[in-house]
Amino acid sequence: MRVTTLVIGAGHAGLAASRFLTEQSIDHLVLERGEVANSWRHERWDSLRLLTPNWQSRLPGLSYDGPEPDGYMSMAEVVAFIDRFARLSKAPVRTATTVSSVRPAEGGYDVSTSTGSFHCRSVVLASGACNVPSVPAVRAAVPASIAQFTPFDYRRPGSLPEGGVLVVGGSATGVQLAAEIQQSGRPVTLSVGEHVRLPRTYRGRDVLWWMDAAGVWDQRYDQIDDLTRARRLPSPQLVGRADRATLDLNALAAQGVELVGRLAAIRDGRALFSGGLRNVFALADLKMERLLEAFDEWARTTGRAAEVGDPERFEPTRVPPSSRLQIDLAKAGIRSIVWATGFHPDYRWLHVPVLDEKGALRHDGGVVEGAPGLYALGLPVLRRRKSTFIHGIEDDARDVVAHLTAHLASPGAAARARG
């Protein structure tokens, strides 16, 4: 089957691309391995809510219009929102269609799927940035008696064995799961490495309101000094709760969670942790303070300081009086490990030489390098700092589809397509 453009993935990114392709009258299909919003439906734990407030949930031509603009969507609400967008935009989605290969071909690309083969002139990779949990190699040394989970496996505390839990990773996922599991009555040890600390609210507004109003979200990828580092930054320690509470390491420690350093190795059933928690905490605190100072400066220089409360400063992250450098897992009663160590895309089906030595896609703002007609959406800081968030996809999708449209209209592309 021939089609001008194929979009791989029917999440918010792929559907946004479809909306702009339709506006440009470009015939296309959106291929989805499961259902619309499949990852939101099947690869999240039960209690998860968006980190972004509801008023920030928007897609091209659709904004949140419910009764709780300052609340945070549950996964069921996210699915309903994306489903609604798919219906309103009349996206040509082909569900239950798994892509097995994308290969260069004369005039474009050949795409093989579980429901047939396609030839297209362009492809938009919108399959997501969180397809596969990134679990360190040290997992192979975990004793067989200890159950291991990733955020894809974990659903609720009751799905874990009775006994202690080691949560590895101190970013958004790690702190949320550590808090939930500790509240269930299971003792939790949290292994913390580099992290981004943020208060849930600042000067009376959601901290993400400040990111939006001060223009942080809109900073372009070509304005960032260290783009590689920006794309690898961990997600901030935030949780979407009705009480808008801050969930940082101080809150976890007060709840009874034991904090230890980064997991370095597991040998003979003993988990070994790096030292230097004081330095790790101080660096995260310093970066938070600098961001808050930038918000204060923006409020002053724009004359909007009167709209918000007074400047705030927060207690430094408290360093435990003594932090264990090793734990005998069996003797400590740890019966499970939850790997909250990040995610990465899955490109095993992409048979085009466009990945670097670490398996990352080489692209310039979503225009894949060395592969004319191949594009990406939904990756971290793709074109702006907000690229991976639901509200951030509209601008990125508009830009990428504009480039795709120009590519299709170019004489060289047209000649290759005829050939």
Structure description:
With 419 residues, the chain is of the alpha/beta class. The chain folds into two domains: 2-131 and 345-418, 3-Layer(bba) Sandwich (FAD/NAD(P)-binding domain); 133-339, FAD/NAD(P)-binding domain. It is 27% helix and 22% strand. It has ten helices and 25 strands. It has helices at residues 12-23, 38-42, 75-89, 172-183, 207-213, 227-232, 249-255, 277-301, 393-409, 411-418; strands at 2-8, 28-31, 58-59, 62-63, 93-94, 99-105, 108-113, 116-125, 132-133, 147-149, 164-168, 188-191, 196-197, 201-202, 205-206, 236-237, 258-260, 263-267, 270-273, 326-328, 334-339, 343-344, 363-364, 367-368, 374-376. Strands 1, 2, 5, 6, 7, 8 and 25 form a seven-stranded mixed beta sheet that branches. β11, α4 and β12 (188-191) form a beta-alpha-beta unit. α1 (12-23) packs parallel to α3. The radius of gyration is 23 Å and the shape is globular.
Largest sheet, strands/sense/barrel: 7 strands, mixed
Count of DSSP H/I helices: 10
Structural class: alpha/beta
Give me the count of strands. 25
Strand proportion, as a percent range, falls in 15-25%
CATH topology of the largest domain: FAD/NAD(P)-binding domain
* CATH homologous superfamily descriptor of the largest domain: FAD/NAD(P)-binding domain
Q: Share of helix among residues?
A: 25-40%
Can you identify the CATH class of the largest domain? Alpha Beta
Give the end-to-end Cα distance, rounded to a whole number of Å: 17 Å
Low-confidence segments, ≥5 residues, pLDDT <50?
none
Overall pLDDT confidence: 96
Give the name of the CATH architecture of the largest domain. 3-Layer(bba) Sandwich
Silhouette = globular
Please compute the radius of gyration using only Cα atoms. 23 Å
* Count of structural domains: 2
